[in-house]
Known about the structure:
Elements: E1 17-24, H1 32-45, E2 50-55, H2 62-66, H3 74-80, E3 88-90, E4 96-98, H4 112-125, E5 131-136, H5 142-149, E6 151-158, H6 162-178, E7 183-191, H7 194-212, E8 218-223, H8 226-233, H9 238-241, H10 246-260
Parallel strand pairs: 1-5, 1-6, 2-4, 2-5, 6-7, 7-8
Antiparallel strand pairs: 3-4
Helix pairs in contact: 1-10, 6-7
Amino acid sequence: xxxxxxxxxxxxxxxxxxxxxxxxxxxxxxxxxxxxxxxxxxxxxxxxxxxxxxxxxxxxxxxxxxxxxxxxxxxxxxxxxxxxxxxxxxxxxxxxxxxxxxxxxxxxxxxxxxxxxxxxxxxxxxxxxxxxxxxxxxxxxxxxxxxxxxxxxxxxxxxxxxxxxxxxxxxxxxxxxxxxxxxxxxxxxxxxxxxxxxxxxxxxxxxxxxxxxxxxxxxxxxxxxxxxxxxxxxxxxxxxxxxxxxxxxxxxxxxxxxxxxx
Length: 262
């Protein structure tokens, strides 16, 4: 695993918001959005007040996976200068959501002033909830990292694919460069077994220790589960459609650890 190329460090415009959790990945296809949705529902099922914010400004798809057709989305809020809470909508999963604009890359180039205004809006809304989960876009672009900088914790999702591991390492490298104190944790998704998930995490951890002098802890391992794909196709959360399936149980375990502060 090679070191990531140097990229300009971003200043943090405001302190991180304590109850905000970013869900990130270095690349697409690792189940990041599915994890964000399932974690939101798992936390809500445990009695927590949860807001899921679709922060994929390029290719939002939380609404698609949930089968929602929101009256207002994040794109409308940004374009019209509306308060963010106008776009908050309840879901059948027991949590609230701010949907992005699916199928449009137009928000990926949102400028710094509007992003800062959005951060102010999120800071005002977040205290209404126990947890605000931000589903970031895949990659390490400027807007992704600025959104992540608002969150006190970041769950970096990876799989055992070599490219997923390399890109997760690159994300951790740049996130740590932006702020060395950031609470970065790893979720291994689509693991063939818990033991395989531990090995995948060990590979990433070794690279982080060797090159970055960092040891991001393991937030959890989610087993590969064919019912996940079926629930996504059905536009129904996995915890609703298959509440006792392996992947759902694994995400609930991650939620319990987060609630316990572990």
